Amino acid sequence: MTRIALINCYFGKSWPSYFSHFLFSCKYNPDVDFLIFTNLEAPFQIANVHFIKISNLTEFSKIASEKLNLSIHILDGYKLCDFKPTYGLIFQDYLKGYDFWGYCDIDIVFGNIRYFITEKMLKKYDVISPHKNYPAGFFTLLKNNEQCINLFRQSKDYAHILQNTRHFCFDECNFEFNLVHTTDITEINTEIESFTLVLRKLELQKEIKYYHKNIVQEFTYSNVVHHWVEGNIFNSITEKQYLLIHLINLKDNLYFFIDPIEFKTSFSISPKGIHYNFNKFSYSSKKLKKKIKENIRNTRYRFLFLKSKLLSYTQKQHINFLEEQSYKIGKTYLTFYPQDKNKLIIINEADQTMHYNQFSLYKLKENQWIGISKKIISTIDFHYKNEENIPYKISINNIKKRVNENAYYIY
Q: Is the dihedral of CA 158, 160, 161, 163 positive or negative?
């Protein structure tokens, strides 16, 4: 049987709440090995899941620098996405004896991998993605040979991307998620040559055999329940089977509740959470408690904002360090224009459309401010590297929506 290894890198203070269910779904794919490079300990042991210690992003950067012969300095975990196509080279020493290597995220629950990724498919294709329009960052497989290990080098921008602190969505489509559904990536004017563009060009030139079809449930918007039963995932209505469910738009939902792992042979996944036995009364009770906590939290931030505003009258607070600096969030360009004391204009520009926002900003502590725009309160954190005077990253956290966006300085 063809040997497969899937790689994930995760660094943090603790595992997310859904990680145990990810691990348990790995157990039901015993003929696939999972290599998790992390600073954390395994919550429990699964025979085919191997935890390999890397202390932090600094150590990862050192390893990547040596393997890629580049100067790598990763400052936040989100940047790791750009490195996924390089994992075959960075972790080459761990991949000896495997026929295929790949990468996966941990915010997924696996179905039966071998049911979809068959021996016939593995013999035929060099690269396998379960998404039609781009190599999925949450799961992509590549042959363990020199060509596929070095495919990332086919992008003329790879060195610039990997050495830059900004996240480019290199592993997928450089944030062109809407356009790639209707337009071939070769016809889209992107900032960089993404891995999608690399693979598509080589596919058209018949230099690689590239499988890319939709065999996953990535976004779950309806209330349809999916069942996980002994390593298989299927839609409860259509009974259609899936390779995996990606929790990307569910995991941060305030009312997405996850039952503690019980190691049972079945559970359900829906926008309400991951449950063994869903109980409407219990769910409603949890939802009510969460709403009360959120109201208390929002009230606390409103008081914090008012307190910071009052303190500003006795302090010198200036945000001149943002004078006409340009940043990017995904495809969106942001330009900051400080006005009078504690006033900031942000111009958002994306797809030839401009939006104007005015913030009133007040200092909370060093490098952290609290602001309001259109009655929405946000905290804004400024992140610096070395001795630079301009922040390389600005984190904007919408308090009410619990949405955190990172804007990266354009070097």
A: positive
pLDDT band, residue 278 (cuts 50/70/90): very high
> Whole-angstrom Cα distance, residue 344 to residue 388?
21
CA distance 375 to 26: 45
- Token pair for residue 153? 């080098």
Global pTM value = 0.94
Name the burial class of residue 381, with classes exposed (0-12), middle (13-18) and buried (19+) by CB atoms within 10 angstroms of its CB.
middle
Q: In one letter, which amino acid is 41?
A: E
Q: Pairing relation of β-strands 343-350 and 332-338? A: antiparallel
Domain ranges of the chain: 4-212, 320-409
Q: Say whether 395 sits in a helix, a strand or coil.
A: strand
Tokens of 8: 């994930």
Cα distance between residue 381 and residue 63, in whole Å: 29
Rounded CA-CA distance 133/123 in Å is: 22
Convert the pLDDT of each residue in 158-202 to its tens digit.
999 999 999 999 999 999 999 999 999 999 999 999 999 999 999
Strands 353-365 vs 108-110: parallel, antiparallel or unpaired:
unpaired
Count helices and strands in the chain by DSSP H and E runs: 9, 23
Distance CA 287, CA 390 (A): 42
- b/e burial code for range 113-145 (CB count within 10 A of at least 16 → b): bbebbeeeebeebbbbbbbebbbbbbbbbbbbe
Query: Domain 4-212: which CATH class?
Result: alpha beta
Task: Transcribe 335-390 into DSSP letters.
Answer: EEEE-STTEEEEEEEETTEEEEEEEEEEEEETTEEEEEETTEEEEEEEE--TT-SS
For 257, phi then psi, to 5°, come to -105, 135
